[in-house]
Amino acid sequence: MSANVQKGRHTVGATPTGLRARLASGDLGLIPVIIALIVIWIVFQSVNGNFLSGRNLSNLILQIAEIGMLGIGETFILLLGEIDLSVGAVSGVAAAVLVLLSVAGVNPWLCILLSVVSGGLIGIFQGFWVTIIGVPAFIVTLAGSLGYQGILLGMLGNTGTVPISNQTLLDLTSTYLTPATGWALVVIVTVLYALGAFMMQKNREKRHLPAPSTTATLTRSLIVLVVSAIVVGVLNTYRGLPVAGFILLVFIALFAFITQSTRYGRHIYALGGNKEAARRAGINTRAIKISIFTLAGLMGAIGGIIGASRLGSASPASGGGNLLLDSIAAAVIGGTSLFGGRGSMWNALAGALVIGSVENGMDLLSAPSSTKYIVEGGILLLAVTIDTITRRRRTRAGR
Amino acid sequence: MTSEQSTSLLSVQDIRKRFGAVQALQGVSLDVYPGEVVALVGDNGAGKSTTIKMIAGVEQPDEGQIYFEGQPVSLSSPSVAERLGIQTVYQDLALCDNLDIVSNLFLGRELKRTLIPGLPKMLKKAEMEERALPVLQDLSINLPALSTPVAGLSGGQRQMVAVARAVLWGSKLVMLDEPTAALGVAQTKAVLELIERLASRGVGVLVISHNMADVLQVADRIVVLRLGRTVANFIKTETNREELVAAITGVNEEVATAQ
After folding, report:
1. A19 touches B at CB < 8 Å
2. Of B106, B180, B198, B202, which has the fewest CB atoms closer than 10 Å, so is most exposed?
3. Which of A247, A240, A233 has the alpha carbon at shortest distance from A309?
4. Cα of B6 to nearest chain A Cα, Å
5. How far is A276 from chain B (nearest CA, A)?
6. Domain spans of chain B, in order of start
7. ipTM of the complex model
8. Does the B10-97+170-258 domain belong in CATH 1.10.60.30?
9. What is the DSSP-derived secondary structure letter of residue B117?
10. pLDDT digits (tens, 9 = 90+) for B33-79
């Protein structure tokens, strides 16, 4: 029997996680959002031929850098099945810390560090309140959000908007990787990906486990090569890959690795999937929860720094508006479940691209704010509806 | 019951436990020998789950003594019990639906390596899968590819995963709380067969069940609890359903006192 099982497994497609299994578990990953993204791009491109130009895509990347950072933080929180309504306000406070320190003449890198630390401290505070005291995250972060807006107003005082004059801080969102660096990046990313995939395949083959075929590994590496080459090629027709976009990619790749390939990441998913099971398995659920809220605070601050750099200032409106909902939307539209345990960091990027593309496209069409709000609200509702329905289907199937 | 003379794997002697005003256990005694399946039966509130919790280290008895492999032990926490080789499969299974089979088997005990000290440790995914396969094959547990999320499994398969997890950690004693309660006929049969295979490997198995048919099929010995007390200890081949039910409900005693 065991031999049969083995044989059967080897014929089970190339990917260890078959599409059918993912369908059954309601975990479609990136497929729906990528389809949505392609549709959105085709629609806007057909209406306005400039949409997919290097210049506009470069702009789009700068627009989503902040949402993307907040979306990463929100994705971590959602993986636990919690919610953080304070990432927007945290980014505002971090922006104010950054700008005020910079105006006071502090070294820009120290400003960035302290700004990030301020976000982390807020995160620890919220994590403590949610985990140890046991107040629902919804309330802690909503109350916190109000409080941080107050702190932001207090810090900026009567001055209102404080402009950034330090060039290093402004450069964060106004410099680009040179075309040559961009191409080098394409090569490095492809080689690293192919190497990783190939080593994984060999490791599994050595242990006689079902492994992806060499063709599959090569195909996937080729897809990575083609996609990254197209992105860099198009962006190089303008000024190259924006540094802020590069930083976003580095963060996403780093956190994707942490969530998918480390024990800490595995425990995050376990905690989001079944808290009691995680606890009985001896996982320190409290430490993980506090650390995740801290991470969300850190990412909120990093997003705030990018936002301040882009605007060139911190103002009472920093971190306000629809930034919070956009970042939650980025995570959820990307396919991260509101109910915990399902999603990935790449979802946050894909979701941020969808949100950013819709906003950007409608700007190009000079759509009024009224239309923009309605369309974005509709997209968010649709994404959450899909999430809810897949979850209901799972529960009905007795899972 | 061939090993009456040899030391028991687990020996629970006259344990008592009080929760506030409720005397939950007032004298439970039972023995489990290696390779033996013992069923723990009783009506609701008879103290079955409390007894299992004592052995799993979740609760501690007020009085009485538990011996494991002949030595008196103090099961002060679940981890102490696990270290001795006692694994418990709870009724609600405690699996993470969103994780795949291997991840659930190794949950909390992931094989890992340090990439950079101080930073999160990297999982050895392939090694974990490689180590799980022989255990599953030994027990003839037939599961889909180990990278399938548990959400995609049937109730019986999930029970198999939960039991396999207990076995994978080198248990000497596996306790199962109502392992067939939520299962269909075919799945129940598969789980019962798995329990028999476990015992044939020398593992002691303690099963809580309400289902007399299951109990009579799989158990070597049946311990009956009533109102927190051990009231009977049957050898399967020397008893029948009526006698068991009578012991569980206490009908004979009532008849006796009435006369």
Report:
1. no
2. B202
3. A247
4. 33
5. 7
6. 10-97+170-258
7. 0.82
8. no
9. T
10. 999 999 999 888 888 888 998 998 888 999 999 999 989 999 888 88
